[in-house]
Amino acid sequence: xxxLADLEEFVRDHRQHGQMTGDATEPxxxxxxxxxxxxxxxxxxxxxxxxxxDADLVRWRSAPVMSLSGxxxxxxxxxxx
Length: 81
Ligand SMILES: [Zn+2]
What we know:
Layout: H1 3-14, E1 21-24, E2 32-37, E3 43-48, H2 55-62, E4 65-68, E5 71-74
Antiparallel strand pairs: 1-2, 2-3, 4-5
The protein binds zinc ion (ZN).
């Protein structure tokens, strides 16, 4: 499973619970930590290695709104403000 596949599964399971809040640490040489908190209290947390940081994850990290599986998911977090 890739990080993105895990993330898509998390969003699919939880998006009906309410708004999700995404955050990510500043990238370091070995990657960065991505966290996404669901309104229900479950937190998705993954270490993203540079090799895993494909275009979709870069978009995820830098965009205020992301689209997974064709549906927009509103996000807010310190990384984007
Ligand atoms: Zn949830």
